[in-house]
Amino acid sequence: MHHAPLFTPVSLGSLALANRIVMAPLTRCRADADHVPTAIMADYYAQRASAGLIVAEATMAMAGHSAFGGREPGIYSAAQVAAWRTVTEAVHAKGGKILLQIWHGGRACHSLLNNGAQPVAPSPLRITNDETHTPQGKKPYEIPRELRDDELPGIVAGFKQAAQNAQAAGFDGVEVHGANGYLLDEFLRDGSNQRSGRYGGSIENRARLLLEVVDVVIGVWGAGRVGVRISPLNRYNDMKDSDPVALTSYVAAQLNQRGIAFLHLMRGDFFGIQKGDVVTPARAAFKGALIGNMGYAPAEGAQAVTDGTLAAVAFGHHYVSNPDLVARVQHGVALVEPDGRTFYTQDAVGYTDYPAMA
């Protein structure tokens, strides 16, 4: 067996995993125009059920904040809950475990995707380093409307309802999406949060909304079935922070107090601009299960498990093109590289047609 430490069982809170390989959440845009999961999504996730844990893609906690061309899934309607149940049943039938990542797009949304509604954010700061896909083609991001403090309880309540709906859909737990420049991450980092008051300024204030969401989700699921994903260094969606190490330490310590199942840490920057070590402060402050993500090869991941840094390792883009990634890693077989042209298309090509190894 290759990379044997990855194939020992582990418990993340109340989640007992057969191995330490996690399928990271990957937006693939295969839902229908009403954000309802489709039948091929059940096939896709069932193909990958050998992962110790699947974290399903970023899923709209509330209506009206589409940020991925209008085809990302939601979990706020009865039709969405019913469709997600077919996914969870397919994964469970293969012996897998699956969590739902619940998410709000924040300033990455666009009015053309949301019936004319202006995006919302902690501060009226537009994403400037990219454009977004809309029904009218690629368009610049819009200046978001600054959320009032008295609107934030409604955001928290929306995440609570999403967590309840995820239970009804048969998931094994949820991951709160606090990464990659979406709403909760926008509040966390001072490059996007320039407000005053209880939700701006200090790290403690900027982390308040994330922690309020985590607390209500724990109230639904219990701490042992809740994970949180953060990306303190990632510049995706025009993000930055003046002190990502301090931010990591504070958030990790607060999540440690809550006893959540795991902290899912994106350790780097997609663009290689912001650099630093956030794994060490996260490990120091968070005593529970740490899942590492971004650029881990199997050998490095196995060593991080052996030395106690990580409880599990998340693989992202290679799970697009390797439905049997667990078997390939176990047998030392090279991983297939994915075709980026089909990441966000709407059919089975480049989605469910990647073959397992012979």
What labels describe this entry?
single chain; 358 residues; alpha/beta; eight-stranded parallel beta barrel; two-stranded antiparallel ribbon
Walk me through the structure.
By secondary structure, the protein is an alpha/beta fold. It has one domain: TIM Barrel (Alpha-Beta Barrel), CATH 3.20.20.70. Helix content is 30%, strand content 16%. Strands 3-4-5-10-11-12-13-14 form an eight-stranded parallel beta barrel, surrounded by six helices. It has a two-stranded antiparallel sheet with strand order 1-2. A two-stranded parallel ribbon has the order 6-9. Helix 3 runs parallel beside helix 6. The chain is globular, with a radius of gyration of 19 Å. The mean pLDDT is 97.
Please, what is the CATH homologous superfamily? Aldolase class I
Portion in helices: 25-40%
Largest sheet: 8 strands, parallel, barrel
Summed up, the helix count is 11
Shape: globular
Please give the order of strands in the largest beta sheet.
3-4-5-10-11-12-13-14
CATH topology (level 3) name: TIM Barrel
State the CATH class: Alpha Beta
Query: What is the beta-strand fraction?
Result: 15-25%
Distance between the termini: 17 Å
Number of domains: 1
Number of β-strand runs: 14
Looking at the overall shape, the CATH architecture is: Alpha-Beta Barrel
Radius of gyration: 19 Å
- Low-confidence stretches are none
Write a compact overview of the structure shown.
The chain has helices spanning 39-47, 78-93, 152-168, 183-188, 203-206, 208-221, 244-258, 279-285, 298-306, 318-321, 325-331, and strands at 10-12, 15-17, 21-23, 53-60, 98-103, 120-121, 131-134, 137-140, 145-146, 174-178, 226-230, 262-266, 289-293, 312-315. With 358 residues, it is of the alpha/beta class. The protein has a single domain, classed as TIM Barrel (Alpha-Beta Barrel), CATH 3.20.20.70.
